[in-house]
Amino acid sequence: xxxxxxxxxxxxxxxxxxxxxxxxxxxxxxxxxxxxxxxxxxxxxxxxxxxxxxxxxxxxxxxxxxxxxxxxxxxxxxxxxxxxxxxxxxxxxxxxxxxxxxxxxxxxxxxxxxxxxxxxxxxxxxxxxxxxxxxxxxxxxxxxxxxxxxxxxxxxxxxxxxxxxxxxxxxxxxxxxxxxxxxxxxxxxxxxxxxxxxxxxxxxxxxxxxxxxxxxxxxxxxxxxxxxxxxxxxxxxxxxxxxxxxxxxxxxxxxxxxxxxxxxxxxxxxxxxxxxxxxxxxxxxxxxxxxxxxxxxxxxxxx
Amino acid sequence: xxxxxxxxxxxxxxxxxxxxxxxxxxxxxxxxxxxxxxxxxxxxxxxxxxxxxxxxxxxxxxxxxxxxxxxxxxxxxxxxxxxxxxxxxxxxxxxxxxxxxxxxxxxxxxxxxxxxxxxxxxxxxxxxxxxxxxxxxxxxxxxxxxxxxxxxxxxxxxxxxxxxxxxxxxxxxxxxxxxxxxxxxxxxxxxxxxxxxxxxxxxxxxxxxxxxxxxxxxxxxxxxxxxxxxxxxxxxxxxxxxxxxxxxxxxxxxxxxxxxxxxxxxxxx
Lengths: 303, 269
Fold this sequence. Notes:
heterodimer, A: mainly alpha, 13 helices, rod-shaped, B: alpha/beta, Rossmann fold, four-stranded antiparallel beta sheet, 10 helices, 12 strands, disordered C terminus
């Protein structure tokens, strides 16, 4: 930039040659001597040494203050991480605990499952007085059926190939399994207890212990079997086996007179011992399955 | 922040014996930035990513995060991780928002922050709110499912983001957008991406890990990798002239040298 400050002002008319870009050089500009002397007085003084660097440093200070404000420029993701960790501190559900897993697993079961299980149990209660003469207690069969279906349904992560994503969350496989089984068992025990109370209201002659054992024993036994088989061979195999055993129990009760290990009609000491043994075996299989779930990380996600 | 893998090996049981070796003696260290993991099919990329994500235990070796073994950190390490598997499924009756909400709860996101966060990550990957809230997952296209998978990996604002083929099933524009997003996220995170399509990465990676046959061939910076093929890539159009090589060409050159002769050379030397 020329000291005359005449950067293009005054037009390009007049005589004289042009620079390489078609612009008049300062010495070619047609100005009067008086105007030129006035313009010379306005010439910018030369910059002292170091002035450009000082200016840039000062500009950086200003721009840093205005543009890099931690409050203003912080990405939402950073504040989210902090907000999440702060919110967890006051929560009763600490990371690593099992209770905070219950809610998402309840949601995973879906409204339809809860409604169907209530309908099955209600049907069982209503049909029991009618089927009692045949030695069948539908309320007991219904409790076991909803448990079998519920367990298979809750373990469908492998079928839908969601297990790997779920296990990448900050949970232990055993916690996830325990939460799912807890929900299904807890819900079905509640339903069966309600069905038992209603059944006893309809049939006052029925013994409470007899009725409870008629569904509790097969419920715990089949839970253990389904869990163990599902973890070993997949939830589809587990559900088929569970339903098969449930159907065999029904057929045995009604037609064959054998396989009536869970028949409520048998109240002898032998029948009682069989039921208790079935419950113990079911709990043992469940614990074995729960311990095995930690091996998912050795071979890759199973359920 | 640092992620260090020490002498990782992984074998799987097959036919009653532990005889399928997926990884062997893999060691490397990672700082914040974008790391590309690549290699031929069956080279162990997915196995490596699973181990780094904490969903698979190595047969030997260990992974250290900030100086602590992830095996001992357990859930607290996975709390810092976002993971996208190469193949994954959904619960088909859920909507996208329900699925993100479900996983968000598994990740321990407090309920009062959950809904907003789900919508936020959905927006980051280009899923509209209407799509998330009204369409069931069974009606999602392959690209939408892939983006939803990426969104769930971002839910807990992870410090370590591990993505196996994040751009699968995405159109070219969305692929570019995804890798641009990953480049931004890698400013303050360790982002590990496994991909076959090295060209998608462009200039974004800070380092390149190449696996073959379960072994790590090495860790290269893009500059070092490109130096391997400098002046070895030619384009002929009339008179030939050198062109700027790409990472994909560098990758092929590394394999060719490793194999001796079988890797596809662009031109015989």
